[in-house]
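Write out the bound-state structure for zinc ion.
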Amino acid sequence: MLASLLLSSMKYDLVRIIDGDTISSTDLGRQSLYSADDIGKNKAEVAFNKIKILNGNKNMEFKNEYLDSYNVETLLYKINIVLDATDSFKTRELINQYCVREGIPWVMTSSYGHMGQLKFINPGKTSCLECMTAGRDLIPINCHYDSVEPYVPQSVSSISTSIVSQFLSGIILDGDLRFIDFNSMEIDRIKIERRPSCKVCQNRIFPLLTDEKIKGRQLY
Ligand SMILES: [Zn+2]
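---
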């Protein structure tokens, strides 16, 4: 949610926050927009209200929903770029399939322990998530709520916001995977080429939008 605060202060036409989850005690500290009074409330709505108080941004809206195969078209309607902050592999696959099908760029982020990962995906120009996972067995690390250092998602949010900003400024970005170790302060850059046999970005097969649809919250 830090990314939504940063994006809202950058005066884009519209920032849409999508999250059907509720705030729990493990979110406190890791998500600076949330306080103890917010436990049990919807994450997207609380973030929306806090940001409005902080900077009065009127170009923001929230959706209290989990992104799934049935609402993805509505929730991502007329979106220029998607910033992923989900904790579900399946939801990321859905974002990939939808964004590749529609030609929408997106930024994948994930966090675990003291590690963070980021990859920019620009359909038709860079490799996609499927190129990365099926071709090289590089599975995104995932945020388990009790096993991620609080500074990791905060830092990853800041970096992902800079990727969005650069792209929207017209800068050409690569699709390499950045793997950040916040203990050693080293960033590994792993080249992810487009895979000629990729079922999503080459063969344009989108099972999560057709015969393997997902609904509601996805745990994995
Ligand atoms: Zn691909």
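---
Residues 151-168 form the longest helix (18 residues).
The chain has two domains: 1-66, 69-210.
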